[in-house]
Amino acid sequence: MIFDNLKSIRQRIARCCEKIGKRPEDVALVCVTKQAVPGQLEDVLTSGVTILGENRVQDLVSKYGIIGNRASWHLIGHLQTNKAKDAVAIASLIHSVDSIRLAKEIDNHARRINKVQDILVQVNVSGEKSKFGIMPEDTLDVVRGISLYPNISVKGLMTIAPETPDPEKARPYFRSLRELRDRISSELNTKYPILSMGMSNDFEAAIEEGSNMVRIGRAIFAREMT
Ligand SMILES: *Cc1c(COP(=O)(O)O)cnc(C)c1O
């Protein structure tokens, strides 16, 4: 099941890339393992997945204990400052940095282990109260502020679109994240190459709007996709 699901997702990514003239290998697939059991983790590794994403630090720690460095690990969910140490110890990329205070904490822990921690700044493009992330209008200042920390490297932006059965409804949010990234890049004269956007329901729309990192869970692990 996982093999078939992954095959079909890769085909969909490839088809989508072809449509917009991008190479499929330019879109990174983060396999979101929060619903997966250990046996399934082995299956995704066998299928050639190289990046695993977890949204809670506790789960990152426990699954890292099983899989170790056979994959690179991304933290994709909200991070509390008191858990930054474990996240920095394991994650090659933290997608969910949403304050300067958190960045400062990450920078501290990264310095202690001689690491430059790659991060993305999470933006709440839809402005929903239930969502984490900074507001689009604050993003420039926050990115500028975080960039002053020597042991952090800002690689781009991340967002979660509103949940909707119709991926077309998510598309404008993806577009605004890309436009925001372009604006900040030109304002700060720095490349922010990564746009982490698109999940099981909406990854094709996200790729068409410029995503180069999709975070997919259910479509890989679910028995049936609707
Ligand atoms: C769970 C999760 C995903 C994956 O969502 P699916 O709908 O299962 O593909 C992506 N990003 C974040 C931040 C998540 O928490």
Would you kindly provide a written description of the structure presented here, covering whatever features stand out?
The protein has helices at 2-20, 38-46, 57-67, 84-90, 100-112, 136-146, 171-188, 203-208, 218-221; strands at residues 28-32, 51-54, 72-75, 93-97, 117-122, 152-158, 194-196, 213-216. The chain has 226 residues and is an alpha/beta fold. The chain has an 8-stranded parallel beta sheet. β1, α2 (38-46) and β2 (51-54) form a beta-alpha-beta unit. α6 (136-146) crosses α7. The chain is globular, with a radius of gyration of 17 Å. The chain starts with a helix and ends in a 5-residue tail after the last helix. Residues 32, 34, 55, 76-77, 160, 199-201, 215-219 line the site of pyridoxal-5'-phosphate.
Q: Percent of residues in helical segments?
A: 40-55%
Rg for CA atoms: 17 Å
How many β-strand stretches? Answer: 8
Describe the main β-sheet briefly: 8 strands, parallel
Q: Secondary-structure element sequence?
A: HEHEHEHEHEHEHEHEH
Briefly summarize what is shown:
It contains nine helices and eight strands.
Task: Please describe the topology of this protein.
Blueprint: H1 2-20, E1 28-32, H2 38-46, E2 51-54, H3 57-67, E3 72-75, H4 84-90, E4 93-97, H5 100-112, E5 117-122, H6 136-146, E6 152-158, H7 171-188, E7 194-196, H8 203-208, E8 213-216, H9 218-221
Parallel strand pairs: 1-2, 1-8, 2-3, 3-4, 4-5, 5-6, 6-7
Helix pairs in contact: 3-4, 4-5, 6-7
The structure holds pyridoxal-5'-phosphate.
Residues 32, 34, 55, 76-77, 160, 199-201, 215-219 line the site of pyridoxal-5'-phosphate (PLP).
